[in-house]
Amino acid sequence: LPISLGCGTGNYELKLAETNQINAIDISPESIKALNKKIKERKLSKKAKAMLMDAENLKFKDDSLDAVYGVAILHHLDLKKVMQELKRITKPNSRLYFIEPPISNFRVRKYRRKTPHMRSKFEHPLTRKDLKLIKKYFRVKIKGYYFLQTFMPKFIRHKEKYGKIRKLLDNLDSIILEISPFLNIYCYSIIIELRN
After folding, report:
1. Can you give the pTM of this predicted structure?
2. Residues in Cβ contact with 169 at an 8 Å cutoff, skipping those fewer than 6 apart
3. What is the DSSP letter of 61?
4. pLDDT tens digit string along 41-79?
């Protein structure tokens, strides 16, 4: 079964559970309680399970998982500890996918300076040093760069307008990044694939 690391209240996990089986973990009891309630309400109990667990101390057996993913989670953790744990629990040829903010984006750095109240003490965007550490445990491949401009609609309060503008900017991003791949360093997120 795939494991979602740092699932929060489960926006991605609930969508995945409609067509796949998924186990989700988070360190927050409130998040796990909220996600389990949603799982029950949507009658997804046979496909999804949310568990309280620390990503730096995983309760899975050695070589027991073949897929792991997480969205904006690695940059909150002690990277060495979590890489050791992920290496321990994943089978050979496992695939792990993470969407993370890179430090290369000046807008990420500027936004973070303006919103220190939204940060934990140890949180930081992924750096080259972080990627070098990850490479000690896994083969690393950057699969894509996303959200060149889509960071802008976050400030739009109206949900319907946000969705339309976001879709338009996603499409525009794809075109711009295809024409000018050197702009990828300005994207808000990267997708990283890790393989044993």
Report:
1. 0.82
2. 149, 150, 152, 153
3. P
4. 999 999 999 999 999 999 999 999 999 999 989 988 999
